[in-house]
Specification:
single chain; 538 residues; mainly alpha; 77% helix; disordered N terminus
């Protein structure tokens, strides 16, 4: 029986390896192979670069997934889904299919507790979103990439998968949105700095040097950071695509040169990177360089060359967009945008003419404004002069009135003799009446009613009030009313919180809400509402 089984396995392998179409005709024969056999065969095809056959085997393995499988079989199936997501994105540029496989893998891994598979799914989802940034200006793509890379790093740290941790760290440091401070990944930096990686971990030395370069950037030690980035390629363990690592390291070194203002050195580095991109067929690298070179030319004032590289950049971006089936990302033709720039450049003279016309119009308007301002200032001076004259007259009138009032204060009884004992007794009676809250909060309270209550006349009472309190009756009464209402508020703040200002004003004896509010603010420095609010708090 074992010989027959092995024979069937060999037949199926021959059919599949010879033609995917023949594999479809012998689909039933896949049942002979175990999940592990299918995965192993697909993995070998993947490693040898036979991606079409690898995809066939991996898809067949993923299709075997079932909730009743063992944990190990589930892990194999989910790993196949992750590999399919990787293939669809990196080899076939089918973003929708890649996203579908990776999200399916992440959902199952999260549900089944397969943390290693979940971390790999997150890492590839981060790659997918970061790659989409080349052909889309969607602002949330960088945030999504950062989020998935960080999640992958956290899981790798938790389960002790150092290889996955290093990969996640390298992807985090490649995000443009973090340059040059890298503050959001300080924790990840510290983890890598304090970790001891065995030599068997790919890119472990590279990650260590990269962490040092990032720390130098954070200290603004640009010279050391640039030297470390330029030295990075010699620590690369990438034997399949070493040019990717070299291009990435040189790109960061060029960016540091631009931070320092050394655009000539940055220009030279980007030309080297451009040659790497063209020589090894790396369109994404070429695209990035074209954009940066255009930016440098623009900064140096060479708009003609900047426009030429800008046009090449847009053409390359348009070409990449046609290759990358990004699904929900709009299919825009970026090269057509450059036609608008050309039209704008050719209409420079007409724009300059328009600018001159606008400048002349602005100058004329400015002259008119200056004339108007001069006229207004002159009128204002005349008005100020008249107002000063009126102020002097009013001041003189007030001085005369004060003289008259002071004369009356000195001798309110017009020469009558005032008995000292009588004055003391009168003062005592006045104080007793003014101590009564019923009197001072009465709306009918007046100098006349006060005189009647103390059995005297208004002249005596006015004289004594001015002598004792240095205030006339109206001001004294207003102050006493405010003090009394403040005492009541302190005793019952919650009750007064329910009353309106008008009601409180009437209770205090004021006939005018505005007069009450003005007196209250003058005496306490707070509005009635603020005073009540503070009383409630304290």
């Amino acid at each position: 029986m074992n010989g027959i089984k092995h024979f069937k396995i060999i037949v199926v392998l021959i059919c599949i390896l010879s033609s995917p179409a023949m594999a479809a005709r012998v689909q039933d024969a896949f049942d002979v192979l175990s999940v592990a056999d299918l995965y192993e065969t697909g993995h070998r095809c993947f490693q040898s670069g036979d991606f079409q056959r690898a995809k066939t085997f991996l898809a067949a393995t993923a299709a075997r997934y079932d909730d009743d499988m063992t944990t190990e079989e589930k892990r194999v199936c989910v790993d196949c889904m992750v590999s399919l997501g990787y293939l669809e994105y990196f080899e076939y540029h089918r973003y929708d299919e890649s996203f579908s496989w990776l999200t399916q893998a992440a959902d199952i891994a999260r549900r089944e507790g397969l943390e290693g598979c979940l971390a790999r799914a997150y890492l590839n989802l981060g790659n997918l979103y970061q790659g989409s940034m080349l052909t889309s200006s969607e602002p949330q793509l960088s945030s999504l990439a950062l989020s998935f890379y960080s999640k992958a790093f956290d899981i790798a740290e938790r389960i002790g998968d150092q290889a996955l941790l290093v990969k996640s760290f390298l992807n985090l440091t490649s995000l443009d949105v973090l340059f040059p401070n890298f503050t959001p990944i300080n924790r990840e930096l510290a983890v890598v700095e304090h970790s001891e990686f065995p030599d068997t971990i790919i890119f472990s030395r590279y990650a260590k040097v990269l962490a040092k370069a990032v720390r130098a950037l954070q200290r603004h030690d640009y010279r050391q950071a640039q030297a470390l980035y330029e030295a990075l390629p010699q620590y690369s363990d990438d034997t399949i695509n070493p040019e990717y690592s070299k291009a990435g390291a040189l790109d960061m070194a060029a960016r540091i040169c631009m931070l320092e203002g050394n655009y000539n050195k940055a220009f030279s580095l980007y030309h080297d990177i451009l040659e790497i991109g063209r020589g090894y067929g790396l369109p994404e690298v070429e695209l990035e360089c074209l954009g940066k070179i255009s930016e440098i030319y623009r900064h140096q004032g060479e708009d003609g060359k900047a426009d030429d590289f800008r046009f090449m950049y847009l053409e390359k971006k348009d070409s990449l967009l046609r290759v990358h089936q990004t699904g929900t990302i709009p299919q825009l033709h970026y090269a057509s945008l450059f036609d608008d720039e050309i039209r704008l450049r050719t209409s420079t003279e007409s724009k300059l003419l328009t600018t001159r016309i606008v400048t002349v119009a602005v100058c004329v308007l400015l002259v008119v404004v200056i004339v108007l301002v001069y006229v207004l200032i002159r009128k204002n001076r005349l008005l100020t002069s008249k107002n000063d004259e009126l102020y002097r007259k009013n001041t003189e009138l007030l001085r005369v009135e004060d003289t008259i009032i002071n004369t009356e204060k000195v001798n309110p009884l017009k020469g009558a003799a005032i008995n000292a004992d009588h004055i003391d007794a009168l003062e005592s009676r006045i104080e007793n009446v003014l101590a009564s809250s019923d009197f001072i909060c009465s709306p009918d309270a007046s100098l006349k009613t006060l005189a009647e209550k103390v059995g005297s006349n208004t002249s005596y009472v006015s004289y004594i009030l001015n002598k004792k309190y240095s205030e006339n009756f109206s001001i004294l009464l207003g102050n006493l009313r405010i003090k009394e209402i403040c005492r009541r508020i302190e005793r019952e703040p919650q009750r007064y919180r329910q009353l309106t200002v008008e009601a409180i004003s009437a209770e205090a004896g004021f006939k005018s809400r505005s007069t009450f509010r003005t007196s209250f603010v003058r005496q306490t420095g707070l509005t009635p509402s603020d005073y009540i609010r503070r009383s409630c708090i304290h």
